[in-house]
Amino acid sequence: MTAAKIIDKFGGQSALARLLGTRQSTIQHWYNNRIPAKWQKTILDLAKEQEISLKAEDFFGDPSIPGASHPGTIQIGDMRIPCAVLDDQESTRVLSEHGVTTAMRSRSGASKRHKKKAQEEGRAPLPVFMASNNLKPFISDELRDGLTNPIKYRIGSRLAQGFKAELLPAICDVWLKARDAGVLNSQQLRKCKQAEILMRGLAHIGIIALVDEATGYQEIRDRLALQKILDKFLTDEWAKWTKTFPDDYYKELFRLKNIPYPPTSTNKPQYVGHWTNDVVYSRLVPGVVKALKKKNPVMPAGYRRRRHHQYLTKDYGHPALKEHLSNVIFLMKTCSSWQDFKTRLDMASPKYGDTMLLPFREKKHQ
User: Fold this and answer.
1) Residue 26 structural domain
2) Angstrom distance (rounded) from CA 159 to CA 67
3) What stretches in the chain show pLDDT beneath 50?
4) Considering only CA atoms, which of 98, 101, 107, 155 is closest in space to residue 130?
5) pLDDT 10s digits, 241-255
6) Residue 5 pLDDT
7) pTM exceeds 0.85, yes or no
8) How far apart are CA 366 and CA 354, in angstroms?
9) What are phi and psi of 22, to 5 degrees?
């Protein structure tokens, strides 16, 4: 039920203001928005006194708005971001818009002014931390759509707004690409540092695991839920081979392993496949390596008939693989040794089933 309908039950704005002992302008503000949580119990009690039919769930407005079945908070270093698993069909993982804005060192006041101006101009606003013109060339259509259409959800008796958790690494990537292109000013470079810290603590799929851990949802996530994820990522119909792993991946892999590149043989050594399973496939979704080995088994001659990536779906599997590869190559280029790379990778995108490391600040020795 909308706030307007609830107010009209009491005879309109002026009538409810008198009953509550508050100004009519306060009720007018509620009329086209929502009734604040702190007033809802008082109004429920008043409805009971006035013999007006009103229930607590009536304050939630649109019944299609999902609730937070598992709220929580993720922490990376000194950054805390409220998160939740929603009770919709997809068990959507969301991050609080306010939490992401704060993590990116943007001010909530500036965010409100930015939204108000966009609404006055009749356009869907990008969040304040992505609104700078020099960032826009690096924002994909998919990311723009996700950011300009935030998810509304109920948490307790109040309404909240957030973004799909999977968007956070893409947000950070925009800042890092803008930095690499040399278009950021000095103030923006400080914000970019936050994006780099977040990117190292999260990854496209790792964020899902982190939200599930923070909310306790992993304790009830059953085999069927994992199978639903695999069904989105894998297909029984293998695709025609196309070049998927960039040369940079193998160049950095061989560099960190102190092996000459390119290899003397046109076929890469078999152990390269083991490394790729370790740093790529085992970090995409739970159980994907086992499922791929079943779909694409080793032949009696000792080789697999096709490449693993040929069994990834076009709409979920391949985009996730490319996103993860981009993050992996980025980390590789910042590392001088294989051990350094693996440590950072385990923090940014842990293998499923492993204990995740978080990048806490080291204490300085006095």
Assistant:
1) 3-60
2) 9
3) 204-205, 354-366
4) 101
5) 778 888 899 999 999
6) 85
7) no
8) 34
9) -130, 175
